[in-house]
Design a protein that fits this description.
Layout (H helix, E strand, L loop, with lengths): L6 H11 L9 H8 L3 H7 L3 H25 L4 H17 L5 H8 L4 H24 L4 H24 L9 H14 L10
Length: 195
């Protein structure tokens, strides 16, 4: 007797399909992959859009909320920033590690994807800014550093995706992350004539 699929099983399969972008989430191929029928799908979801939203919620939990919870267990904002950046860089360097992230960035014309990306990006930037503020930066500087750190992650992910031979990886990645953290946490330069 075959085990009955859950909504989570469908959402996890849809999340895997999101590596190909939002358009890659299709009920028939997922049903075939899961060894299920369309009836199983409709038992859990009323539409493909509901499935996409469930997959996006799963992505948000795994790749944002669970990561933040893991990092929060680390003492000190500088150490949390380093662990977070190193984890993100390693994830994007792993085979297919940032595929969903990049596919979602490319699928921003889908309203559900755009909403999830906006929510996740805001959450990630807020968390990063909080860590930089805990290091003593004012709110504007903390937000700027958060944006720079997040841009570094996205840029590294794209570099690994497009030209993996040119991206730092392996043993060099820890030193690369350390240099990024050093740059991002150094005091802001004083600009002559600025008030």
């Amino acid at each position: 007797m075959k085990q009955q699929l859950t909504a989570h099983d469908w959402a996890a399969a849809a999340l895997e399909a999101l590596r190909g972008g939002a358009a890659a989430v299709a009920v028939e191929p997922l049903a075939k992959r899961l060894g299920a029928t369309r009836g199983s799908f409709y038992w859990h979801f009323s539409s493909r859009g509901d499935l996409v939203r469930a997959a996006l919620a799963l992505w948000e939990r795994r790749e944002t909320e669970d990561v933040i919870a893991w990092v929060e267990a680390i003492d000190g904002p500088r150490e949390r920033l380093r662990a977070l950046l190193l984890s993100a860089l390693r994830s994007s360097t792993d085979a297919g590690g940032a595929d969903v992230e990049l596919a979602l960035q490319a699928s921003v014309d889908d309203p559900d994807v755009a909403e999830a990306l906006a929510r996740v990006t805001a959450r990630r930037l807020d968390y990063l800014a909080g860590q930089f503020a805990a290091l003593g930066l004012d709110d504007a500087a903390a937000r700027e550093r958060a944006t720079m750190a997040y841009s570094a992650f996205l840029g590294h992910a794209q570099l690994v995706h497009a030209t993996p031979a040119l991206a730092p990886g392996g043993d060099a990645l820890a030193g690369y992350a350390d240099r990024w953290i050093a740059l991002l946490t150094e005091p802001a330069p004083v600009v002559e004539g600025a008030r």
